[in-house]
Design a protein that fits this description.
By secondary structure, the chain is α/β, with parallel strands linked by helices. It is built from 9 helices and 14 strands. A hairpin with a 4-residue loop joins strand 12 and strand 13. Helix 4 crosses helix 5 and helix 4 packs across helix 6. The protein starts with a helix and ends with a helix.
Length: about 350
Amino acid sequence: MFNTFKKVIVLYWMFLFSAFFSPATAQEIKNRLASTDSGHIDFMSANRRTTFSQMYKKAVIFDEAIYGELSFPKGMRPGDAVPAVVIMHSSSGVTDTIYNWAQYFNDMGIASFVVNSFTPRGIQRTAEDQSLLSFPASAADALSALQLLATDPAIDSKKIGVIGFSRGGGASLHSSFEKVRQSVIKDDTKFAIHLLFYPSCSEYAKTTGAPIRIFIGTNDAYNTLEGCQYNVAALQSTGADVEMTVYDGAEHGFDTTGPRYLWVMNATTARDCTPGTMNIDNGQAELIDGKKLSAQDFVDYRHSCTKRGLHVGSNPKYREMSRVAVKQLLQNQFGLAQ
C-alpha cells in the first residue's frame, strides 16, 4: 500500500514537471491560425540536418519545433485580410535590425512573421559554423511559415512574401525553387515575391515564377559581384524573373544599424573561391571559367577555398535606399496605396 502511494506521488510530480517545464507542448504547436492569433507562435519544421536530396525525394522529416513572432498593422478591422512578409534572419540570429524591418512592414499595412530558426534549436549563431543548421532546413523553415500563415483568415494567402538576410537570403532564394517548395507544401501555395539581401550566390534551379529581387553591395565580404551576376544569369536561363540591385561600396550587412566596419574573426567566407553555381535540379555545377563539376565536387571545392575572417558594416545611405526600394516593390506586388 505504501509503495503504491509513493508511486502515485512520483507520477504526480512527473506530470507537474512535464506540464510546466516542457519547451513546447502538443497544445502549443500550431498547424492552423485563427484571426486572433498573434505574437509568439510555435510550429513544426524540418530536421536541422535536412538535405536537398531529401527534399527532392520528398523525404523531409518534420520533427523540430521552431517559432515565429506574428505582428499586424494597427487599425485592422474584423474581417480584414492583409498581405504578410515572412522574415528570415542572418547567421547572427534575430537582431534589432530584423525587428526594425518587421515594424517597417507593419507601418506599411503588412503583417510580419519573424521566424526564429536558431533559439528553439539551441543555436546562438552560425557565422563560424554553418553546418549547425543546414541551408535546406532554413528553406523549409521559410516554407513551413508560409504554409502556416496561409491558414490565417486575417492574412491574404495570395499576398505573402519573404525577405531574408545573408543565410536568410539563401532561405528566401531556395524557397523559390519549385521542387524545394513541393517538398514542404502539397498544394499550390507559394510566396508572391522573394527579397534577398546579400545572399549566397552559388545555387539555382527552376523557380515558382514569383519575382526574385536581390540587393547586394560591391564590397560584400561573402560574395563577389561577378559571382552574383553569374548566378543571376543562371537563374534567368531557367526563365526566372530575377533582378539585382547593386550598391557601390556597400558592405555585407549594409541595412543593419551596427558599426560601419566590423571585423568578424572566425566567420567563414568563400569569397576567394572562383565564382560558380550549382543547378540543384540536376546536381551539376559549373565555374565561371567553364569547368564543370559534380554537385559533390562543387561542395568539396567550396570547402577547400573557404577562409575565416571577414568584415561587415552598416551604411545609412543604402539602408534607407533599400527600404524605399522594398516598399515600392511590395506596394506594386500587393496593390497597396502609395
